[in-house]
Amino acid sequence: PEDCKPVWNESKSHYTLPNGSEIHLFGADDERLAARGRGSDAVLAVFDEAAFCSVLTTVIDDVFAPSLQLTGGRVLLGSTPAPVPDHPFTQIAEREEARGNYARRTWHDNPMLSNEQRTAIVKEAAEEQAMTVEEYEATAKYRREMLAERVIDPLLAGFAEWESMRSTHIVALPRPAVFRGHVGIDFGGA
Predict the structure, then answer these.
(1) What's the CA gap between 72 and 24, in Å, rounded?
(2) Using CA atoms, how far apart are residues 63 and 3, in angstroms rounded to an integer?
(3) 68 backbone dihedrals φ, ψ, rounded to 5°
């Protein structure tokens, strides 16, 4: 309705609503662009596709945090899981999941897609990759993008087999009864 319709302000990259609230839109492909998000007090900061932003910690710590500190505002990070495990989004997601602040939704939770549509999408994607449906559904891409699983893409891993071997290769070794720890340093010079 006209009495609720926001007005776009190109110079400020804001939508201004009739009640004075503003919606500020900005990209964060690098620190310079992320700095455009700085501004006045905010009650909610929403960051979409956070797991694919190389400056995520800058956006959260330097752009969002100052705007939210006086309002008690919140940050909402939305994204499929990061394709690499050392992305800051992965650590944030794991910490917030332990705190009970994490929601995982898959494409099966999307009410706008029927099972028939999902089946057709997977079948077409599998055909494009010259795979069976079962092979495609086992890929890291499908599991990450459609099922929101935290998986390591074997094409990005230095030791691709690690994920399947981790549980059997990380074992606690008891320290010997007689143990004396030493650190040796060799400066390599005369």
Answers:
(1) 18
(2) 31
(3) -100, -15
Distance separating alpha carbons of residues 92 and 81, to the nearest angstrom: 11
Asked if residues 68 and 59 have their Cβ atoms less than 8 Å apart, the reply is: no
pLDDT digits 0-9 by tens, 62-81: 999 999 999 989 999 999 99
> What's the Cα-to-Cα distance from 185 to each of 179, 180, 181, 188, 189, rounded to whole Å?
19, 16, 13, 9, 11
- DSSP class per residue in 113-174: S-HHHHHHHHHHHHHHTT--HHHHHTSHHHHHHTT------TTT-SSTTHHHHHHHH----P
Of 59, 69, 3, residue with least CA distance to 32:
59
CA distance 78 to 166: 28
Beta-strand pair 44-48/7-9: unpaired
Model confidence at 190: pLDDT above 70: no
